[in-house]
Design brief:
about 170 residues; alpha+beta; Ubiquitin-like (UB roll); five-stranded mixed beta sheet; elongated; Ubiquitin-like_dom
């Protein structure tokens, strides 16, 4: 049995277990929201125990699960984005992603990180992209429609946030 089939079987088992839990409750009785959230969190905890998904956080989103699966099947790549404070963010994008796709993935990554840490609630991305640009091997990624491949960016390559210089 290959990994994909094995993983699908595990997910089907988890789905069946969750379905059984819901069916055991009286059909007329509605579950309180807190109980539904608890059951959902238990299901997510089981999914995250899968060897393919063990790197994901406990409060995982469906998008993160899909990205991790796409990585495993070679349909996506990880771009390491380095900030000025030398923090490296592993951002997942599809193989044929554009610079705009990378920027949106960076935004989602940072927003999820702040939600989980209880940090800043709102970031002005318009300001961020007006103040900084992305750079790969000293070349500005200034054409948002251009694919990352055209810039030579491959899986696990590093892209850097660089502060724009003011024009005088």
């Amino acid at each position: 049995m290959d990994i994909k089939t094995e993983t699908e079987c595990e997910y089907n088992d988890i789905e069946q277990n969750l379905s059984d839990e819901f069916n055991q409750e009286d059909a007329d009785e509605e579950l309180p929201h807190a109980e539904v959230v608890d059951i959902f969190q238990e299901g997510l905890a089981m999914i995250v125990q899968d060897p393919l998904l063990c790197d994901l956080p406990i409060q995982v989103t469906l998008e993160e699960i899909n990205s991790q699966i796409a990585l495993e099947y070679g349909q996506a790549m990880t771009v390491r984005v380095c900030k000025e404070d030398e923090e490296i963010m592993p951002v997942v994008v599809v193989q044929n992603a554009t610079v705009l796709d990378l920027k949106r993935a960076i935004q989602r990554y940072i927003q999820l990180k702040h939600q989980r840490e209880g940090g800043i609630q709102h970031i002005s991305w318009k300001y961020v992209w007006r103040t900084y640009h992305l750079s790969y091997s000293g070349e500005k990624l200034d054409d948002e429609a251009k694919s990352l491949r055209e810039y030579g960016i491959k899986n696990r390559d590093e892209v850097v946030f660089v502060k724009k210089l003011k024009n005088k």
